[in-house]
Specification:
The protein is α/β, with parallel strands linked by helices. The chain has three domains: 4-9 and 24-67, no CATH class; 78-217 and 262-269, Vaccinia Virus protein VP39 (Rossmann fold); 218-257, no CATH class. 36% of the residues lie in helices and 19% in strands. The chain has twelve helices and nine strands. The strands form two sheets. The chain has a seven-stranded mixed β-sheet. Strands 7-8 form a two-stranded antiparallel sheet. The chain is globular. The termini are far apart.
Length: 272
Amino acid sequence: MTSPEARAEAGREPSEAPAPAGRELRCRYTTADLRVFTGQEARRFVTRGNGDPQTDADLAWELLYRLEPQLYDRLATAEHLHSGVLAWLPRGVDTIAEVGAGTGRLTLELIGRARQVVAVEPAVPLRRILQRKLAAAEHGDRVQVKHGFFDDLPLPSDFADLVVACSAFTPAAKHGGEAGLAEMERVCRPGGCVAFVWPNHLEWLSARGYRYISFPGPMSVEFGSCQDAAELTAIFFPRAAERVRQLGLRTVPFEVLGINPPRDVAFKVLAG
């Protein structure tokens, strides 16, 4: 019998047939698919009874990362970060640690900003995609990819000048929480910066001393084609899918999708 670790390494789906191409995310997976998780992952992510990804959106996303990582990467590749966010991020520092790196939406932008970058990502299939991208990128060898979770980072204290996460951290314990925030601050050097790009739950971060900036201007998701836009919108933004299909859009404004654009940063500079 194939172990959960081996299934995760291969990025294969354990159920009998793959999800239909256009099925929306909340309906793509069943409890049978939970077998893809390692024991460590199951203890973290399957927190309500046996878990049902059709009623637990967070669980569905975790299964997406492990069962259909290329599908997730198609979406993440289309969601470009605001140029103001990229200009704001520091350059010329010694070390950057990124947590929840995924397939490299932010990681590839960090390569030229530091002598070394460490990208921490718990999902094996996403790490494999990231490693392939880094192998093809100029100076990609500056990035070391590691397995780890927000609340258990494989890094020493006072390690990095910038510790950053992009659209991955939440106040929930399984995706960060108090323990994850403490870990990110532990890894950051005195005088360094902990930052959340495209943050969730701003009030929660503000109550813990984080400042917030947002950069203006229209933003859109830039899909590879009209067909790609129609397919991915049906999966990830089903309420907007019919409009996108009817208009034949390839570049879709974030307001059409009903989500906040990746234009903001929450950050804290740690005391020196």
